[in-house]
Amino acid sequence: MKVGVALRSTVFSPSTVAKIIPVLENSNADSVWFPNVRKSFDTLDMCGMSLGMSSRLRVGTGVIRPSDYDFTLLLARLHTLSEGSGGRFVLGMGTGAGIGRSAIEGLVAVAKRLREDYPESLKPPIYFAALKKRALHAAYLNADGAILNFCPPGYVQEILPEGFGRKEFTLACYIKLFFAEKDEEARMMLANEMMAYNSIPQYHKMFEEIGSSGSIANLVSEPAMDIPDDLLKISSANPTADEVRRTVKRFDRVGVNLPIIYPYILGDDEYKTRVVQRLASVIV
Question: Whole-model pTM?
Fold first, then answer.
């Protein structure tokens, strides 16, 4: 089973990433992903730095919004990353704040244009961010993969397109995990992220559909409480190695052929590196 690791730039600065990439290069991790975070470090530059520090890891954006870039300049940057890494770069892209059919159609159009204009050699795989069935179906028909986020395995099963099983299609899912030296701080981080995502209409609707919106609402009054079982299917705080393994396997069983461990870590660089080393040891 292939497993990736996401390195969020608000958690891992470029100097920290430089320490962590060798750890992941020497592990069984398949790939490294850089979620795009506004007002932080440049996602494509983080990919380029990581590709240059590794020889086998695939490295991808997870995800960028094409509308943030001049198309010609974006095309040149993607070509540089793909050709310079021997084809190890993966382009993950999404609609950003755009929702609905028109936003998805726009993403499909960009993917088609990139493929038409991209040099023939080493065209990067394209993955779409997907939260709902329509976006996942569009990715299945028009991209090489899809990246799901912050959802339980049962929800993945519900939104899979009919007849899903294209062999070369990659179904990835971010598995957000929260770490701190004190358990209550890790739980607080998880609660805050759950509440933040619950304020986003698309995610709130998903949480309602899976029956978890009530549990998230209760976190508002007692954010350091024990995390309810239904939320532990989505995320966890300070999980043990065995718990991480079981979580990854649960996603694998429902068809996620690229679970991506996405750690939020509170602490200094030494602590962050230790946590990543521990997570890397889980990947077999």
Answer: 0.96
